[in-house]
Design brief:
The chain contains five helices and ten strands. With 267 residues, it is an alpha+beta fold. Strands 1, 2, 3, 4, 5, 6, 7, 8, 9 and 10 form a ten-stranded mixed sheet that branches. The protein is globular.
Length: 267
């Protein structure tokens, strides 16, 4: 069988992020163990992007190259893996892709969504899945500020360092483009949605943190404009917690996003 593109969803709370670590408590580690058990051989996977500890995904994508001896039909892959996975991780879809396809480098867009819960009391069912903000927030001001992020900008003020960046950092390294942004109220929840071609490390959480400071009156639009338009080494003043962040979808020209929560199999 040739290369396979998988779509998966996971609750990030129990895991130490996506990227494999020596302790083995990451989403990648658990998925690779399930793959190895299914095909009876080690099988490395390559994701569209990494998520940090506590960050969730509804539509993460990864590819793998099962050994030639594997005889699992394409439509049986989700079931074969889900039977070997904990309930907090689910494979939603499997489809065949060309050998030159890469889950990360072939992607043309990603959507992230951040959930803030505005109710006086946080439901226990949302613990670890939303940022609880019951106090006063200028939601209209947050919406106006969010609009400033749309378009192509130098986002160095809204990026953290992983420690593996190239040295020296090449020109344009921090430039990213957001083509859709929105702030929406749904009942007691407030959602920030960002769609773009690529994201820097902790970029979404730093943007949401800046919006929080706007909403609290601790940062004004002029200060936000300075951070965004004239990067000088100053950083966004607050990084929102991981619990409210969801990787909603990863897009490819030939493969539309998968509706999360419903297992699908495609040829």
């Amino acid at each position: 069988m040739s290369r396979i593109l998988f779509t998966c969803a996971y609750d990030g709370a129990p895991w130490q992020g996506w990227q494999s670590q020596p302790g083995g408590r990451t989403v990648q580690d658990v998925l690779e163990k399930a793959l190895e058990a299914a095909v009876h051989a080690p099988c490395r996977i390559h994701a569209a992007g990494r998520t940090d500890a506590g960050v969730h995904a509804r539509g993460q994508r990864f590819h793998a190259d099962p050994p030639g001896t594997c005889r699992i039909p394409l439509n049986r892959w989700p079931g074969a893996l889900n039977a070997r996975l904990p309930s907090s991780i689910r494979v939603l879809e499997a489809r065949s892709v060309p050998d030159g396809f890469h889950a990360r480098f072939s992607a043309t867009g990603k959507t992230y969504r951040y959930r803030m819960e505005r109710t006086p009391l946080l439901s226990p069912f949302l613990a670890g899945r939303a940022w609880h903000l019951p106090g006063e927030l200028d939601e209209a001001g947050m919406g106006r500020a969010l609009a400033l992020f749309c378009g192509m900008h130098d986002f160095r003020a809204f990026a953290a360092r992983r420690g593996n960046e190239p040295a020296p950092v090449p020109e344009g390294f921090f430039i990213r483009s957001l083509d859709r942004v929105s702030l929406e109220r749904e009942g007691g929840s407030l959602y920030v949605t960002l769609h773009g071609t690529g994201f820097l490390y902790k970029m979404v959480r730093l943007i949401v943190g800046a919006l929080y400071h706007i909403g609290r009156g601790r940062l004004d639009e002029r200060g936000l404009h300075r951070l965004l338009r004239a990067p000088s080494g100053e950083k966004s003043p607050y990084c929102a917690p991981a619990c409210g962040l969801y990787l909603e979808s990863v897009e490819y020209p030939e493969f539309p996003p998968v509706n999360p929560g419903v297992p699908r199999m495609s040829g």
